[in-house]
Each structure stands twice: as structure tokens, then as C-alpha cells.
Predict the 3D structure of the following.
Amino acid sequence: MTDHDNTVAAPMPPDVVAWPREWRCDPLTSGHDLPPLFALVGASGGVGTTTLARMWGPAADSDTRWPANPETTQWCVLVARLSMAGIDDAAARLRGDAGPEGLDVFGIVWTPPRPGRIPKEVNRYAATIGELVDHCWWVPWIEELMLARRDAIAPWLPTSPLPDKKHSNLAAGPPLTVCTTGADIVATVTTRYRH
């Protein structure tokens, strides 16, 4: 609140349950014609959950909040920057947050902070924190994303054929590495939760 701000928070009615601010209570959507199979949750803001959810048709973007609505998926992949600070953020979320009932964080997707090689100290730290979950995936730097608008990126769907290695037209779908990572996450979810 600033000196010029005269707003006052209204008291919460006694019958309203206060949800932790790191929970998302509305139903998730995938943004495509599919119900979301898994949610992407950012270890912090700006790690790429929205772009990844756009590229993976079965994913929902849960921003930085744990999905708490049992009507849609609570199966989560944490998304974090592959930097010391980003790994600290992932560790803090995995070790410190109280998640809603039904939440299952089964993996981490590491996103690069820049093009080029990642220092081995960072990779070692990521491997250590990665032991807190069952699966880790790495998404490479995608230069074409610098000029792409999200609504111009075609999603990968589980029924889509995989593109060839040289594919770089985001309007036709994500690059092969992003598609194979999405396919691996989908396979992990279907194996893990098969009844």
C-alpha cells in the first residue's frame, strides 16, 4: 500500500475458506480441444509454462499455482529455469509448499535461461534436486520462439506424427525435441495412472 492508496481489504466472511495463494481452485483447461492430461506449474514466473502448454496439446498452464480443483487434473510437472536461482526455486516449491489433496508432482521440466551450454555445476545441482521427483526432462533453447506469437504456434497432439529433425516452422508444430518430450510426459502419465 502506498501513501496515496486508501483501499482497505474487506474482512473475509466467516464461512469462506481461505485457499493458500499458491493453489489454483478453478478448473484447468488445455486451451485446445482436449481435456488437460497434466498441469504445468512454474517454480517461479517467466519459466515458460504458457508457451509449453501451447506447444503440448494435452497440457494445462497452471501458472505458478498448484491445481486444487479435483474436477480437472492434479497431475503436475514443475517447470523451472536451468540456473542456480531457478533450481533453488524448484527446490523451494518441492520441499516447502503445502499442496492440495490429490496433487501429484511427478516430474520437472528444465528450461534453458539462454542459448548455449549450461555450466556443469548447474547440471549437477539440477540432477540433485531432480531426485525429489520421479522424472526430469530438458527442453532446449528454441531460437524461433523469439519471433513467434503464442497463437501462431501449432500444438503437438498425441495423435500427431513426429516432425523430422530439421523442422523449425512453429506454425506447423513444435520442434522434434519438444514433441518427443511431450510424448514422453504423456506416456509417463498414462503408465503412472493407468487403472
Observations:
- The radius of gyration is 18 Å.
